Amino acid sequence: MNLFSQMDLFSSDEILKTEFDLPGADVTLFENFFTTDESNRLYNSLLQNTVWEQDQMTIYGKQVNLPRLTAWYGDAEAAVSYSDKRSKMHAWNTDLLFIKNRIEQEVPIKFTRCLLNYYRDGKDSVDWHQDYEGEQRKNTVIGSVTFGEKRPFQLKHATRKDFKRIDIPLAHGSLLLMQGATQNNWKHKIPKTTKKINPRINLTFRWIKS
Ligand SMILES: O=C(O)CCC(=O)C(=O)O
Ligand SMILES: [Fe+2]
């Protein structure tokens, strides 16, 4: 085998699937779920075309900016409640439908909405939380896609302090599927870093029972 065909064999665009063995969680990572060309194109297009908002949250009675920009896209022209504020729901666009369709090849579900997060630099982050409330939290599917800077996605058990935290690096073009009771049993976070890093866009495709 010559060098060229060996390199071809380990082409950086090959999809690499990893299932994480976490108690009470169903978490699967697909590296290179999108090719480098697709990821570069989608990163630039989403950065330009998304209607980014500076949302706020209430801390000790004070309104403070979220440490990231956000946007909601989805099926309905309905408003969604997020961080004490009602954000506008925009209609799906071509890029989002392209990404949504690709994830729907992996999971038997039709996503109804997507939250986009834009982490401008290392100061932008999302703190420990679980997605959804109540019944929805107990059994759900979230498809999380990343373009741009690779950042660690940290997972820790919601109640068991003796379980080790895990850090999953989410790279350009990756897909992380969180299914079943993952949201009910585990919390997740994107920590801040003092390193000089590039921006990152994350999209979480969600499915809301109506
Ligand atoms: O940026 C990420 O990878 C996670 C975002 C997240 O957890 C959320 O928006 O609920
Ligand atoms: Fe989340």
UniProtKB/TrEMBL annotation:
Lineage: superkingdom: Bacteria
Biological process, per Gene Ontology: DNA alkylation repair
An annotated Gene Ontology molecular function: dioxygenase activity
Domain Fe2OG dioxygenase: residue ranges: 110-209
Keywords: Dioxygenase, DNA damage, DNA repair, Iron, Magnesium, Metal-binding, Oxidoreductase
PANTHER family cross-referenced by the UniProt entry: ALPHA-KETOGLUTARATE-DEPENDENT DIOXYGENASE ALKB HOMOLOG 3
Listed name of the protein: Alpha-ketoglutarate-dependent dioxygenase AlkB
